[in-house]
Amino acid sequence: MSHSASGTHRRGFLGGIAAGAAALVVGRLSTAGAEILAPSTAALDDAWIGKIKGKYRQVFDATAPNEGWGAAFPLNFIDSTKEALKVTDADITAITVFRHFAMPLMLNDATWAKYKIGAMLNVTDPKTKAPAIKNIFRDAVPLRPGLTYEQELKNGVIFVACNLALTVISGMAAPGAGVSADQAKKDFTAGLIPGVYLAASGVYAVNRAQQAGCTYCYAA
Fold first, then answer.
1. Which of 213, 115, 125, 203 is nearest to 161 (CA)?
2. Where do runs of H (alpha helix) occur along the chain?
3. What are phi and psi for residue 173, nearest 5 degrees?
4. Given 48, 68, 155, 193, which is the most exposed site by the fewest CB atoms within 10 A?
5. Cβ contacts of 4 within 8 Å, gap of 6 or more
């Protein structure tokens, strides 16, 4: 079964952005409302850009769960480049930007459980055959049995999460958890897997990576 977000969810995401933008325009009547909708800059971090090194630089643009392949592509790139060109890790940088409905893959199990992310993204846990109540991708990188996202990050792969997607998706998930959009965003931000960077938006991160010499690959 595919783990990709459905067209309905994509429309919901775009609708969430549109609703947020409209609220910011109309909501100048409400400072509190604007504060809730405005992106927080407290956790935004561009330090990852300074970690881009070597001659062979690649950014993967992940926009959907895609059965967890967004985390596998950078490893495949590193391994195949080393094999083909006889270079070392110091010569290579691989980055995956998790934006749109791929962003929740960067969240921990507790956040998936509280906000029913599996049901939202149509992600089924193969063990329970039910909507996933934990991040089933975190320790199930395709072709890498037993590897976790945390280990991958320690090995030098860079993961960047989209703050715009985080803001919209947390707001969409808030009612189901019985919390405000503001609280949901705080929970999502706190629930990022350690080592993941948060960029202002995914498209911003992809652009900055390319400015730093990365070639681009769409990862679905």
1. 203
2. 7-26, 31-37, 69-85, 109-114, 117-121, 149-154, 163-177, 181-190, 202-211
3. -85, -15
4. 155
5. 64, 65, 66, 101, 122, 220
Angle ∠(22,27,29) on CA atoms, nearest 5: 150
Domain ranges of the chain: 7-38, 41-218
Rounded Cα–Cα distance for residues 7 and 37 (Å): 24
Q: Are 57 and 93 in contact (CB under 8 A)?
A: yes
| Separation CA 142–CA 54 (nearest Å) | 26
What is the C-alpha to C-alpha distance for residues 56 and 52, in angstroms, rounded to an integer? 10
CATH of domain 41-218: 3.40.1260.10
| Residue 190 exposure: Cα atoms within 13 Å on the Cβ side | 9
The reported pLDDT for the residue numbered 220 is 84
Q: What is the DSSP letter of 147?
A: -
Give 64-96 pLDDT, tens digit per residue.
999 999 999 999 999 999 999 999 999 999 999
Query: In sequence order, which residues have a C-beta less than 8 Å from that of residue 42 and are 6 or more positions away?
Result: none
Contacts of 74-83 with CB under 8 Å at 24 or more apart are: 74/152, 74/157, 74/158, 75/141, 75/143, 75/144, 75/152, 75/157, 76/143, 77/217, 78/157, 81/56
Distance CA 178, CA 130 (A): 22
Question: pLDDT confidence of 43, banded at 50, 70, 90?
Answer: confident
Tokens standing for residue 208: 């900055």
- The C-alpha atoms of residue 24 and residue 123 are separated, in whole angstroms, by 32
